[in-house]
Request: fold
Amino acid sequence: MHRLHVMATVRLTHAALRNMVARDLGGIINVASVSAFVRSPGSVSYGATKSWMTVFTEGLYLELKSVQSNIIVQALCPGFTYSEFHDTMAVDRSRLAGAAVLVER
Reply:
């Protein structure tokens, strides 16, 4: 998870920025999560990597703006989604975020 969320993001961002900076044009959207802002037992590493992603994205945005770059940088932070993924993991959905609004299909 750390390799994917942190190292891959750094490498891919830097690779993309090479061309974007040269043209002073482009955009980067990093996929973070609302988990970046909420701590919960059982997802410490996930939340930490998503927190890192938001901080990295904000820092990159500030660096680019400090040199008057036209490159757009943002972090997408989707909320919790109930899916079969949780059933496969045998996760008790009643203990997850937003369980009070759970609508069964």
In short: The CA atoms of residues 28 and 73 lie 5 Å apart.
